[in-house]
Amino acid sequence: MGNSRSSRHGARVTNFLLHTQEGNGTAESLANYLNNPDNSVSYHYTLRDGIVCDVVDTDYASWSVLDANPFTINLCFAGSRAGWSRAQWLEREDDVRIAAWLAVQDAHKYGFEPVVIPPPYWRGEGISDHKYVTEELGIGTHTDVGYNFIWDRLETFVNEYAGGEPPPGQGNAIDDAAAAAPWLGRRLAEGEIPTPDGVGRRAEFENGQVYWHPDTGAHAISNELFGKFAELGWEAGPLGWPITDRTVLTDANGARLGEVQGFQGGALYLRYGAGRPPVWVHGAIRDRWNRSGFENGDLGWPIADEQEFDGGAYQRFEHGTIYWPGRRDTVALLGNDGPDTPLPDGD
């Protein structure tokens, strides 16, 4: 391993990203090039023909994706090109399997979701490519590995290594999720209910339901959040499948303030005692709110879903409003009554 790296500055790793070399190198020759800091580029791994080179320790950031470096792990398929056809990628299927194994191991190590995020993409934790950073995060202009990549094979391999559907005799993901969530109470019926897509499964309990899909694993949804989940069309709606467990949020003294759960298409927040239903936060407005400090920031808790407005959207919070004008930039204003005060981004 060389020194073509930087500190992560405390950032949590959330994504494993794939890249093409746009050249004809081997894993070793590309690693040698990346190990020269003067070249100002690096990846954590290079891979070709069953050979993996560790170039940068994953505890550090590689020089791969500009502002996304602190929270990503990056692997480059040596001797590959973004313009390859599906048939050309299938010739490298064994390397894609190795990449999937590495991605799942790092997902377990750093605590992010071992979920594949293929084109047309959605923003979240998981395994994707450089084009995801360009299109979904708005960083840079790269288009690798692109649409012709064998995303379906990658997903199959990731599910195999992540253990989305347990092999016979190794337990059941829904049962495991229920055991980890005793607040669910007793099970209302034996067995599992197939979801409309024919792939996922769910099970009903006194105080919630557990949803399982091979891409996202099994996660319990409380009855309080489930009503909003149903209102938005269940897993077939814009929320998609749950990707994190329900988390109860507390204050410094341990008092329970509310709960949150992450889904493929955003998050649901419920504030206890507020007399309002769960609120859906997603997209650019959610990102801006996150940067302000979530519910502990100046804006406080969300109090209503996002509303369309003049080609963009806005969302109200306890102490202000975030506007998204239909472009990348958002504007946050403090004060729901009287004069509004702009809230600097990141404060």
Summarize the topology.
Elements: E1 15-20, H1 27-34, E2 45-48, E3 51-54, E4 72-77, H2 86-90, H3 93-110, E5 126-129, H4 130-135, H5 151-162, H6 173-179, E6 193-194, E7 201-205, E8 208-213, E9 217-222, H7 223-231, E10 247-250, E11 256-263, E12 266-271, E13 279-281, H8 283-291, E14 307-309, E15 312-317, E16 320-324, E17 331-334, E18 341-342
Parallel strand pairs: 1-4, 1-5, 2-4
Antiparallel strand pairs: 2-3, 6-7, 7-8, 8-9, 10-11, 11-12, 12-13, 14-15, 15-16, 16-17, 17-18
Helix pairs in contact: 3-5
Mind explaining what this structure looks like?
- This is N-acetylmuramoyl-L-alanine amidase.
- Its EC number is 3.5.1.28.
- GO terms for molecular function: N-acetylmuramoyl-L-alanine amidase activity.
- It is an enzyme of class 3 (hydrolase).
- The chain is built from eight helices and 18 strands.
- It has 347 residues and is of the alpha+beta class.
- The chain has a domain of 148 residues: 3-Layer(aba) Sandwich (Lysozyme-like).
- Helix 3 crosses helix 5.
- The protein is globular.
- The protein starts with 14 loop residues before the first strand and ends in a 5-residue tail after the last strand.
